[in-house]
Amino acid sequence: MAATETQVPGISRREFLYYIWTASIALYLAEFTGLALWFAIPRIRDGEFGGVFNVLPDKIPGVNEPPVDNAEGRFWLVNLDTTDPTGIERMYQASDELGEITGVAAIYKVCTHLGCIYKWNDASNRFECPCHGSKYRLDGRRIQSPAPRSLDRFSVTLNFTDGTSESSGTDELGQFLPVQLNGRTVESMQVDTGSQKKGVELTLLQDLV
Ligand code: FES
Hints:
Largest sheet: 7 strands, antiparallel
Structural class: alpha+beta
Number of helices: 1
Helix content: 10-25%
Distance between the termini: 74 Å
Bound molecules: FE2/S2 (inorganic) cluster
Oligomer: single chain
Number of domains: 2
CATH topology of the largest domain: Rieske Iron-sulfur Protein
CATH architecture of the largest domain: 3-layer Sandwich
């Protein structure tokens, strides 16, 4: 004998289950879409801020030491030297880099993939992005994708105790170069976050080893 359908006042059991099923699918799709948008929309957009930040000289890290965070200016300060064995696991020379990399640079704290805030990882000696796993060397060069290019940099001006001062030059690819110390002592320093230059698309460092 065919089973009689249980009746819920106003709607049948079959209709009730259909509505529940439809609502579940709609909820799942809404969550999926929300998650996709969360990943796709940059956390911070380029050009939201800009200005010159005065930085105390003692905020410049030692050669190849871990970077120093400037939270207000949204940059990391690094002091690089591929010729110095100190901390060379953080700033090693890659096989496609002919010249030495030396000097002080300011690196924008936003990942070049989709704009997440990446962090320095003391254990791995890398900048690492928590969103999709991009990794960068101490100077911001890409080690691992999905980041499409190296980290962006800001212009740095160093004023020395001998009365000289020097600002970031640019290389042939248009990226800001680190400012060399050449044994001079820094008296004061400015980082211009209004002068952002995009990181370049060099070979992934992981593909060179
Ligand atoms: S935002 Fe995707 S790896 Fe950083």
